[in-house]
Design goal:
200 residues; alpha/beta; 6-stranded mixed sheet; 9 strands; 31% helix; 16% strand
């Protein structure tokens, strides 16, 4: 019991540190259910630019975004059709990234690759959901690697050059260890962009 209390206190301490860094415009690495991600808050354009530069990601390539709840997602996207909402309820939290029409004025151009869509996911990782909830806004959630590099599913797979470039690495483990499935629901029929952790 004492050990469990210690672990909870330590987790809370780790979360507080991660939240503090990201709220101030920092970048951190964190575990999700699928893979280790690297991110910053969605509404800090300077942090977004630094993240793109750090990962050497093409500026016209959108990045996935993570949220803690459907309510949080709703603030950044256009109307959710009933069948899409059912999809969210069925597969979130989980390994499904859903590409949706977004409110362009609320999302930096870099995040959406200059377009009008965005890929959202609610991870099935309680620590990360709590982290996002405390930050108060969605966070960018690309995999924690240099663009085109190997996706890290374990902490020892992280590139140390990348680790040294961020403000903090939130401790934890990935569970499914598979990239998320990506589904574009902006047009019918829906289009499967990547097969991954979830089978639709």
């Amino acid at each position: 019991m004492a050990n469990a209390r210690f672990e909870f206190k330590q987790m809370n301490k780790d979360l507080e540190k991660a939240v503090g860094i990201v709220r101030k415009g920092g970048i951190i690495i964190f575990p999700t259910d699928t893979a280790f991600g690297i991110g910053c808050r969605i509404d800090d354009e300077e942090a977004v630019r630094r993240l793109f530069k750090l990962r050497k990601r093409p500026r016209d390539k959108a990045v996935p975004v993570l949220a803690s709840s459907i309510k949080m997602v709703e603030e950044y996207i256009e109307k959710i059709e009933p069948d899409v909402r059912n999809l969210m309820k069925k597969y979130w939290p989980g390994g499904l990234t859903i590409v949706l029409k977004c409110k362009k004025g609320k999302i930096p151009s870099l995040v959406r690759g200059g377009g009008d869509t965005i890929g959202f996911r609610i991870p099935a990782h309680q620590t990360v959901r709590e982290f996002i909830k405390r930050v108060g806004v969605p966070i960018l959630g690309p995999s924690a690697n240099f663009s085109g590099g190997r996706t890290p599913f374990d902490i020892y797979e992280l590139d140390q050059n990348l680790v040294r470039s961020v403000g903090y690495v939130l401790p934890g483990r990935c569970t499914t260890k598979k990239p998320s499935t990506v589904l574009d629901v902006t047009k019918k029929p829906w289009k499967l962009l990547r097969r991954g952790a979830v089978t639709i």
